[in-house]
Amino acid sequence: MRKTAVGMLLTLSLVCLLSVSALAAPVVLEYWTIFTGPDGATMQELVDQFNEERAGEIEVRMSIMPGGNFYESILTAVISGRAPDVAIMHMDRVPEFASQGILLELDAYVEDLGLVGEDYIEPVWNGGIIDGKRYAIPLDAHPLVMYWNKDIFAAAGLDPEAPPMDRESFIEVTKLLTQDTDGDGEIDQWGTQLSVGWPNFQYWYSILFQNDGELFNEDNTEAIFNSEAGVDALQYLTDLIYVHGVSPANVQVDADVEAFKRGEVAIEFNGIWMLAGYQDHPGLNFGAGMIPQWGTERQAVWAGSHQFIIPRQRNVDSAKVNASLEFIAWIGNHSLEWGRGGQLPAKLSVLNSEEFRSDPHLGSIAEAAPYVAFPHTFFLQYGEATGPAWDAINKAFLGLMTPQEALDEAVELANRILKQ
Amino acid sequence: MRAIARPRRSLFGDEGRLTPYLYLLPHAILFFMFVIYPIFKGFWVSLTEWNMFFNEGTFVGLANYARLFNPESIQNAYYWQALKATLLFVVISVPPLVLISLGLAVLVTGNLPWRSFFRTIYFMPTALTISVVAVMWRWIFQGDVGFANWILRTLGSDAIPWLTTQPYAWISILIATVWWTVGWNMILLVSGLNAIPHEQYEAATIDGANSWKSFLYITLPNLRPILLFIVITTVIASFNLFGQPQLMTGGGPSRSTFTVMFYIYGEAFGNFRMGSSAAMSYVTAVIMLVATLTQARLFSAKDQDS
Amino acid sequence: MKRNRYLRFSFILALLVALIFLFPLYWMVATSFKLESVTTAWPPQVFPNPITLDNYRTIIGNPVDTPVFQWFFNSALAATSYTLGSIAVSALAAYALARLRFPGRQLYFWICIASLVVPGVIFLIPNYITIDTLGWVDRYPALIVPGMATATGMFLLRQFFLSIPSELEDSARIDGAGRFRIFWQIVLPLSKPVVLTYGLMSFLNNWNDYLWALIVTYSPSMRTLPVGLMTLQGRYIHQYGTMMAGAVLTALPALILFLLVQRYFVKGIVLTGIKG
Predict the structure, then answer these.
(1) Interface of B with A in 88-147 (CB under 8 A)
(2) Could you tell me the pLDDT band of residue A22, with boundaries at 50, 70 and 90?
């Protein structure tokens, strides 16, 4: 009798101990992000802050994976049961993975969290909805940004607060600012630098939409970017290199960034996330803001958007899902800090707040928010089908083909992809 | 009369009937699983639309292969373009890789002082992994501030856009590849050179041959088997070019350095079309086999002539 | 004397070539010790001034994004396990094929040799699928087990075993030693040169493997050094000082190992008669 009593007591205390420790153990969330630049550090700070506030309850472990890597891995990870609990994905890839069935549907949860569309930049709010179901919650929008070197402007007698904002004045200003400053017969200061590769698709895309063009037709069965709008866009850019001579040819990816940091480029275009990098560079006096309206019909700018997704695990752990949603909501409420790292918060209340707008650079970039242009829908093959466009732009920049030829070839290839 | 019992051979133990198979078993199991089986499984996958999520395929017959020849498919455009790019690299890389390694091998054999030091230096890059090599050379060939362009500008000529235009993109990859792998072939040739009997050279000198003639009529013929091996393996290695384009040029400019391996990898793990990718790998394998056999034939035909 | 002149010329040539071969390594190391702002300075500094450890600190000090030590550990674990396993598996099989009589021994040998002709490209996808089925994706076995049974290993070891005079083993048999003991205590120790050669080859092959490791791993903590360096490039693509520091850290273990043992390796190639 004694033995059984002792045995039961031991078992009971063991069970209590275990359940207490289970209660006490924080929910650990694996969080995969694609922030390979300075924004990675910003996100890490936010994660650390969250972990501090929710110590003992939720612990978020963040991993940074370069973009290409991430998209290749996420499918495999879900399949092999090692997917993260929460992750960040670009808006243009969400449909692809939603259609693979690896993303959790979030409609019900969004209601519980009290998130409403009016609070958000419209296209990024809608971007998470595929076939009527929501698979992603927006975090930010990150547009293409124009950066200009104020010192170069001032030295040439131009107003450093007023960069050129339209087609003609852009050519004029960059021509003026392309100079041989040390008289050695070689141009060492460029009006701008258009790279062969990222982000040339982004500026071409912006002009395409500024010309009221589109990439694909209504039901995404045909590529239509070799329209007049598209060709004009590409022609304008290649002319900057070959006709007006305001950009060198053969600019390697990121060489324009480095040249801008060295003060050799007057106007540079890149993502908003480069902001921190430029701010940290000593002695660089620059401005940042909306890109010019190079196109003929309206103002528009390419933007991406980071969205939270929750992979669909083989066994759904509701504790983890709930913890992930709390984390997502928390980050959303702290999107001011996130924005300060070089993003436009998706939440309008934050975007339009005094604090955000008062930042000299971010406030100016925030003017771009109403003009972010997304394709009418993203779809499964969007990434693959835009690949040929990238190649076409590169070929035109390298002078290997005329814009019309390059885009025609790209459309033909894109149509092949769409037909699959 | 009692029958004499014949000793029965046991199954295990020293003379056991099954003992040899026990020794063979680990190797055989692994070899079967990861070498033999995949040859057939891969072919099966190429006949399916493979669904990675459920790890199974839907049979589609030769559709994946047909797609390669269908002028309306994207694979048709990209695969043959990749094959052309790869063949171009094979053609431009094999001669330097063989000839330079031969030259280096000749240099470090014989009486050269410090020859094992030199041999080590030339062989050392092969100990590096592809990502180190690619990162290193990508930096050297950087368009604005890379070392290569510094040399050029100091010598008075223009900077070259190494990684963003052709033919320089291929040249950059070629230089990096030669630096990286020439040591392998060199070592094989060194061992081959060392194995040539001295008497042959002595006999030739007595006959009045100079060093160039000795090289042509003694060294080369003796090296023929190794040279064949080297040419074949170098062609195969160049066919498999993957890391250098991926890390140095991203397949650019405009897919011009997008090799077959790179495309096969992307089709399987980027576009998630494993069936299509498997089909491409089999087509590529056949092409490589034909190339290897042709080289072997050519070499042995030359043998008969001489 | 003509010979002296020729020798002197060869020596100078060899020296120049050696400098050309060494320079990229030097450049990588030198850049790794430069301040980031200086790496892109023009004209480039031939010798870093000031010498800084910042780039190394960036990489080592960031265990979340760049767990370099974890990558090193993964590579070391995988390569060591692979090498030991491959030697064991190949040696056992080679011994059977060399010394034991049994039906199928020739067949097995030739199947292995024939497989060498098959281009490697076709193995990627089916082996990946196998790994997936076994649940090994993003786990150590995927980096260790697949390539372990090689035709080359079996071939090298078998050839060597065949060349050992059988009297040694026969006399041991007469003394009453069992097969396995003979294998373990006589044959293997005698095979040191070829085991060393094959072991080094295997170790370096596994350590330097890129494509397979790229395919079967995806978590940052599971990556091997070569693939880790690639992900580093995604992160620090225009920070050349940091990239070079990463490259140096990745290259160092292999280079050290190489320099320590390359002598045996080269000798080994001559010994095992890869001269056709």
Answers:
(1) 142-145
(2) low
